[in-house]
Every structure is written in C-alpha cells, then in structure tokens.
Design brief:
The structure holds two protein chains of two kinds. An eight-stranded mixed β-sheet of chain A has the order 2-1-3-4-6-5-7-8, with helices on both faces. In chain A, a hairpin with a 2-residue loop joins strand 7 (262-265) and strand 8. By secondary structure, chain A is α/β, with parallel strands linked by helices. Chain A has two domains: 37-318, Thiamin diphosphate (ThDP)-binding fold, Pyr/PP domains (Rossmann fold); 343-373, no CATH class. In chain A, 36% of the residues lie in helices and 12% in strands. Chain B is an alpha/beta fold. Chain B folds into two domains: 7-212, Pyruvate-ferredoxin oxidoreductase, PFOR, domain III (Pyruvate-ferredoxin Oxidoreductase, domain 3, 3-Layer(aba) Sandwich); 254-349, 2-Layer Sandwich (Alpha-Beta Plaits). In chain B, 26% of the residues lie in helices and 19% in strands. Chain B has helices at 20-35, 68-75, 126-130, 162-173, 180-187, 193-206, 273-277, 303-307, 329-334, 336-349; strands spanning 7-15, 40-45, 57-65, 83-88, 112-122, 140-146, 208-212, 259-263, 283-285, 291-293, 314-318. In chain B, the strands form three sheets. A seven-stranded mixed β-sheet of chain B has the order 2-3-1-4-5-6-7. In chain B, a hairpin with a 5-residue loop joins strand 9 and strand 10 (291-293). The longest helix of chain B is centred in the N-terminal third of the chain and has 16 residues, at 20-35. The relative contact order of chain B is 0.12. The chains are: A alpha/beta, B alpha/beta. The interface between A and B is large, with 63 and 62 residues.
Chain lengths: 374, 360
Amino acid sequence: MAIPELVIPDLEINRRLTVLPMQEYYTSGHRTCQGCESALVMRYMAKIAGPRTLVTGTTGCMYVANTSYNSTPWALPWAHTQLGSAGSSAIGTAAALKVLMRKGKIPDERINVIAFCSDGGGGDMGLATLSAALQDTRYNLLILLYDNESYANTDIQASGMTPWGAVTSFTPSGTEQRITQHRWKKNVPALLMAGHPTGRYFANASSGFGMDLMDKVRIALDVGGPTFVQTHDPCPKGWDFDPRMSHELAILAVECGITVLWDCLEGELRYQGLTKQQVEGKVRRKPVADYLRRQGRFAHFTDEDVDFFQSRIDEMWEDWILPGVLRVNQTPFGRLPVDGSSPRQAGHAGAAVASGNGNGSGGAQIEAVGGNRA
Amino acid sequence: MSDETSVGAVDVTYRGIFQKNLAGVITKELVKAARREDKVGGTVQRYGDSPERNGIPAKQFAVIADDMDSLRVEMTKYEPENVVVVCVMDDTLTKGVESWAWYGVRPINVNLAPGGTLLVVSHRSPEELLHWIPRRTYDWTLAILPGEPSFGGLWVYNDDGTDYRTMGAVSRVTGGLISLDSLIAQAGSAKNPDLRAAQLREGYESVQMHPIAAGVGAQDTYVPVEMPDWTQMREGLVVPAVEVGKNNTLFMKYTTRTTRPLVKFDTCVKCQICYTVCPDECFIPTPEGHYDVNYEHCCGCGICAQSCPVSGCIEMVDESVFESNEPLHKVFESDPAAYEDLRAEKVAQAGGANPHYGIY
C-alpha cells in the first residue's frame, strides 16, 4: 500500500506543527517490549527529522532492540556509540560533516545530526560528554535523551533518574526497609540548561504528547547549534503495568505535574500545552497517587510515602523560581548522615547539635567550625 | 525419561517478563525435587532470550540427570536435547514461537523428543490446539492442564497456583521423571506447604493426556533459518537499512501477540490517534483515510484500543481465533457488510473482546 507523500513542513521556528508527517524512517520490526514508548519516541524523532539525518545512539534498549541479529527497522543511517559517549559522537559526526563540506568532498547542505542516549547512558554516565557537546557552538547537533527511568535493557537497574522509592533490581523493597531507592530523580534538562549558556535550545517533552515532542525536535534541528531534548517514556516492563496503559501513563505524568513540558529557546523559558495551563492556574494538577498507584514498582508505597511524593511535587510547583524547572527555595532532601563521617559532627559533636535543626542553617555551621578552631 | 538415556530436560516456554517468575519457580522447584531423589539437575535460561521483552516468547529449561557428567554435557548446549516435556504457559504460543533473538517462527514442539509430551495450560480442546500445533514424524502426547494463563510482572509474582499445578502435571505426564512425593516433600519448605501440596495433587489429577500419532496435526511449514556466516556479513558489522516505505522483514513480532486489534472501520472517525500512538508503526493509511493494521508486525500491546476515542471501534480480540496475518481492510473495501459479519463472528468466537480499561 502506498504511503502518502508528505514533506516535512517548513515552518518558522515559533510556529507549531499542525499536520502529522506520514513518512516513517523508523519502521516496524523492532525487538522492543509490547507497549514500548521509547520506540515511539524514536519513531517521532525520525519522522520529523526526515531523510537527511545521521543518527548515533548509545548502548541501551534503543540500540539492542533495534540493530541486533543483522536486522534493523531504521531507514536512516544509524551508528552505535559506546555507553556514555552520546555527546562526543554527536560532536565528532557534526565536525566531520563540516570538514567534508569545507573541503568540497560532499555538497554543502543541511544534514541533521542527532545522538540519542538514555537516562543511564546520558543522565548518568554520559553527562560529561553531553556537557562538552553543549559547550561547542561551532556545530549543529541535537542530543535526545529518552528517559525510561532505569537501565531497562539489562532488566531494570536503578539509574540517577529513577524516581524516589521505585522498585528496581538494585532497589528492591524488603520487610526491614520498605524504601531502598533513596535518591530523588535528577533534573537533567534543567541542569544542562542552567549550566550551558552556549546551548541554543533545551526542552523537556513526553512521549504522551507526540506533536509537542515532534515540534521540539524540529525546533532543535531548525535553530541549530548545540541543542538538547529530553523525553519521558513509560516502560511497561520495568514500571510493571499493562502495556496498553503506556500512552495514558505518559499523559498522566504530565497531568500530575511530574513531567513538566517546557522548552528554553535561546534563553527564553516557555511552557507548553497542559503544563502551560497548570502554570497559569487554568488546570489543576491531579494527585500523584493516580500515577503512582497504577505501577507495580510503587506497589509497596504506604499512604505516607505517597504524601511525601506529593509534597515534593507540590514544592516543585509552588516554591521553585521557575515552576517545575529550576529551584531556589526548597527544603533539603532527606536526612543528614548521622554517623561519625557527618561533616557537621566533625570534631565537636555538641556544636553540631547546638547549631539548630540542621535545616539550611549555614550560618550556624560556620560558627560551629570556627568554635572548634578556637 | 526413557531407560537408555540418563538425561531429560523440561522446556518451559512462556511469555517474556509476564511469566518469567512463573517459569523460574517451575524449573527451580523441579530441580530441587529431583535432588531429593538423588538425581542432579540445573536450570538454564536460553541466552538468546535475554534481555527479555514483554510478551516475547522465551524459554527456561530444567535439566535433570542421573550423574554429574551427563548433566554438564547437557548444560553446555544452547538448547538441551531430549526434551521430554515442553510446558506451554500460554495457549496462544502454540501458533508459533519467535524468540527475539531468533530468526523465523519455530513450531512450539520443534525440540520435543520422540514420545515426549507437550503440556499446555489452556481451556481449549485438543482439536482446537492441534489446529495450530504442527505434526511430527513420531508419536507424542498432548497434555492439557485446564486453566487460565497466569500473567504476572517483573516485580509481581502472580500466586495463583499455576506453577505448582504445572509441576504436578509434569510429574504425571513424564511417568515419574520427578515423583509427586518428592515434589510434595520439596513444597514442605515453601511458605504454605499444605496449599502447595494440594495444588500439586490438583495438577497431577486434572491434567488430561491425549496420545497423538505421527502425522496428526497442522502442516509443518517450518524452514530453519540460515544465518549468514562471517564471510557473508558486511564489513564493520554493517546492517542493511530498510528502504523508506518498507518494514524490517527479518523480524516479525506477531508471535508476541496474545490479542489483536480488530477495527470496526465503519465507525472510524479518521482521527489518526491509533496511527500516532502505535509504537510499532502498524497502522497503514488507506486512500479513504482509514488505518489498516499490519498484523505481521503488530505485537498486540493494545495501546491503540485504549487510545481510540470511539467506543468499540478498535477492540482487542483473542489471537487464537484468527487464521492468518492478512490485513483486513481489503475485505471491508469489497464488502463492508461481509466484513462486519466476519468481525462479529471472530469476536463471538473469542468469547468477546478484551475489556477496555476505561479512561483513568
């Protein structure tokens, strides 16, 4: 059956996509799970990037599932790159293209360079190379981080972007300790945005909002320079829910305010879609329990755990300088270590106790240290 | 186990992730029980099935031997030989098994030893199952353990007794590869020994055995896939890309499917949502704006049925009532009324469509 021809729309940067492109450059026949939203992200990305695109990908689900055993669903040129090297492969590919064009070996034309990585390969291991890539303004490249909140390919190990309390192979829930994932999820897009004034475009998207995601990839490629897009994709295998709920769960994460749809184009922060309505107060956020209670990885949560999760999300919306994106006022996360290695207890235990509630009392700390020296 | 050989293997074929814990319990407990009879044993998950994906057919084996040397020899093989029982944990697996690591769809009983038993957890009749299971050149036995397929999750063990009932049935159909007494003794170390023993006895007694003669069953169309050797591979591990507008034909995904989306084209409002949300790119646009389903690549995740805004337009229907993977829109094109009859008939045959989960 012939697929209708539809060229990638040539839009101004700030116009929104209204028609879905019909061409597929990431096609059927991949070895992903039932209901894999990361595969959907790959599909959207390839669809909007179009045929003049080079893609590299780090080790992870979207590498193993798509190019194993001598077959692939990619219609775009794709190359594997090592875990943690998404940034370096992007910059290397972009630089090589530039040199070939300068020397006249290939015609001087626009070729998109996209490197994708996952929360483990990009958010944990590859953060250094992402940082390096986003500092170099000479090249046009996009880094897409698909965040399924664990090392999903190797059967779900906790990453720095696994939510607080979730069950993974590394953080099981036991009878002695109910919660073993003590870390709060790392906010990678804001971290990169805040620290890299050289980056031209940063965005946080969701697989549940395909048009918005495609728009963000399109803007990133059109605006040029180093750009970064992160997507939030439910993983039915590791999050433990029925695959048919995948897409709705991605939407629900936005409705609960856990995933925040924002982008930052050349320094200007904007919210999109449902998030924009939430920020403007037109739509209320749903309780996070709706989202948490649908997933097996949170099945051990008590009501207090859900309340704690809700309080952190509320704070993210109510107390942060940029709601859901950047914090200034926030209560510290978790307890301080209480063993002998605690810096506040070094030398003089009494002074640390006397310094108050240990809640942002920086002044008292300095005093205590000074007292010890004297 | 036959007399001349001292090694027997139990193959547990299951739905990846959903039944991983189930298969793990069955294989491990069988081996532990065998050790109570002074046999030796080990379990092995086929390397190529890992990392496992949701729903994709996968295998775990329990290998039981009389002496350590025979066990060691058997455990080094990619797939153990002399498989005396193949336990099929979901009856739609009888339509064929395409592991994510394997080229091509293999019959469910491809490695069953002569005289062996195919044990299926199902509510279906032997005739219905034999409609799918290919014939062999030797006699074998089809055993049916009445029950619903048990689906759990990676972190959730679905404790409905299917594992212990299957073990009881394995003891019965093998005629004592592992005795029921050893299994009950082994279950003594479980949390609910009495419940487990009851489940083992229930499985032992409720399994129905049907001897199948050589040559009875579906036509065997399986052709082993020839893998390219290293001289045929392209330099630098280059994999040929697919052409624009085509699919990856070397890996289909349809044996992952337990239910398939069936579209009621005349109620379709052409909103494109199914096309947009399908992670497997299985909806093919037709000239009149409908979306036909590519059943060769559809893995039956159900996102389309869940996302479709029209009630009853896309329904998930049990896979076992369908004959082929042919797209159905051409039937609708030639005669909408006939298509609607076909659709209604299939839904009725499957005992109704899978329920929609509702909008949260």
